[in-house]
Amino acid sequence: MNHQTMKALTFKRYGKSPEIGFADVPRPTLKADELLVQVHAASVNPVDNMIVTGIFKPILHFQLPATLGSDLAGVVVEVGSNVTRFKSGDAVFANIFDLGTGAIAEFAVVPERLAALKPANLDFVEAASIPMVGLTSWQALKERANLRAGHKVFIPAGSGGIGTFAIQLAKHLGAKVGTTTSTGNVELVRKLGADEVVDYKEQEFETALRGYDAVLGTVRGDAIEKSLAILKPGGAIVSLVGPLDVAFARARRLNFVLTFVFGLMSRKIMRLAKKRDVTYSFLFARPDGVALAEIGKLLEAERIRPVIDKVFAFVQAKDALDYLAQGRSRGKVVIKM
């Protein structure tokens, strides 16, 4: 391999046969405010499997073939001329979602404002597991739902990638946590701090739980509507799985047609939420180096611990995506270079 190219996991088209596989792609060139990072580990997230279906085609812009993944940890090998906060040799972690570039590759380009120093007590695999679930939980619970001490938050699918982090963050913020999980994972979510645990094979969460201030929507299907029943008036649903809403379309400056379509998609949940005097909003995590550094402090203080289900070798990167798609993981799925 020469220095001009690198190996990356790419997809060639949207839809049923995206042709996910390894390709030799040009090694990225740096802009003045960017870091070139040698990737030591990258983690996969459900959105990676959704991108290739084409569902987000109107919203996220990739030039095909495109490199997959947005979560990484590695070592800075080069810095752009305007970079002041990082230097060659620094161990960093970052999320580069929605930049049109990818993380499951030998090297990745990371804008300086999105990078944070890797917590010293985590290895690269642990660090790579954090950015997307960490930022998503931070933005949903802290910023959007304004979760405070004494609040009650429902975080369904507590043993999954997002759930394992979000439960710990909610506890750190002083909230009480309710979750759903299967019998085999009850102990895991209790250890992470869940106060009310519903075994979804045994009972329905909407009959078991009451008086919640916030819901983190992590499960597709009718769970979002059902969760209205457990909220107090004035409560909030922050959904990571849709339906997409008008506020989201406006925040991303999408065109009139898409804004209208998202309005239709979310019309029913908006109506039901209003009737109950609660708010509904859709959240797409936003890469953010400042928040990630704050999350890094919580990890260094061991207030929050990474939960990793399975680690795949770089050559098995596609298997990591397939494994994640089964929806059975306890914690995060990571690729180690």
Summarize this, please?
The chain has helices at residues 46-51, 124-128, 131-144, 161-172, 186-192, 205-208, 223-227, 246-251, 256-265, 267-275, 289-300, 317-325, and strands spanning 5-11, 21-26, 34-44, 66-67, 71-79, 91-95, 107-111, 115-117, 152-155, 176-181, 196-199, 212-217, 231-239, 279-282, 308-313, 332-336. By secondary structure, it is an alpha/beta fold.
CATH topology of the largest domain: Quinone Oxidoreductase, Chain A, domain 1
Shape: globular
Helix content: 25-40%
CATH architectural name of the largest domain: Alpha-Beta Complex
The level-1 CATH class of the largest domain: Alpha Beta
Q: What is the assigned CATH homologous superfamily of the largest domain?
A: Medium-chain alcohol dehydrogenases, catalytic domain
Structural class comes to: alpha/beta
Low-pLDDT sequence parts: none
Tally of separate helices: 12
Mean pLDDT across residues: 96
Number of domains: 2
Strand element count: 16
Compute the separation of the termini in Å. 16 Å
Helix and strand pattern: EEEHEEEEEHHEHEHEHEHEHHHEHEHE
Strand content: 25-35%
Largest sheet: 7 strands, mixed
Radius of gyration: 20 Å
